Protein: Uracil-DNA glycosylase
Amino acid sequence: MKNVTERTSNPFGLRPPFDRTGPDEPTAAFGYGDANADFHVIGDYPGVHGGNATGVPFTETEAGLAVQDALREVGFASGPRDRPVLENCFASYIHMCCLPAGETPTDASYADLERYFDAELRAINAHILLPVGEQATDHVLREYTTQRNRLELDMTALHASEIRGRGFMVVPIADPADWVDSDEERLVSRLEAILASDYRQTKGVATTVG
Structure:
C-alpha cells in the first residue's frame, strides 16, 4: 500500500506562480484530501467549483457542494461541508489559484498552472480520475488518455461513463449546473459499481464508454 503523506491540504507544498487575491483571502484552493487515494476528483477553478473563501475544493458553490454530496453518498466524504474529511478520495483543480470576483482564468493562466496540477496528479497516482465539467474533462482526456480525438466533448453523453486512460480510468462528470434529475444517481451508481469491482486492476486495462 502506498503512503504518500498524511497532510490533508496541499500535501506536496506547491507554490503557484501568481497571487491575485486580497491580503486576507486564500491564494488558492490547493489539492485536498487523502493523498493516498485511489479516486481523484478534478475540478476547474475555485470561482466555479468553490474554495475562494475556504481554500478547499468543492465547497461553497452549488456546483461544488453537489459534487461533494455525491462523494458523501458513496462514503468518500464526511464531516463539515466547508472542510470535509475525505477518505480514499483526493480533490483538486486544474486551475488552483483564486481570482478576484468576476474574473475567470485565461488560457495563459491555465497554461502557467498546468505543470503544478500534473505534478500533483502524478504524485497522488490514483486509479480513477473524475474530471468535473467541460474544461477539466477536456484537459484530462487530452493529457492522460489517447481518446480525446475520438470523442465528442458532449458532457451529457460522457457523464458517469468509463474511458480508458494511459494508466488511469477516467470517469467524466458533467458540471452539476447542467445535471438533470437522474445525473447524481448515475454518478453514484457508477462509483458504487467501481468500488464493488477490482478497480485496482484498471490501470492499463481497456474500459468502455457508456
Observations:
- The chain has one domain: 32-201.
- The first strand starts at residue 32 and ends at 33.
- Residues 191 and 197 are 10 Å apart (CA to CA).
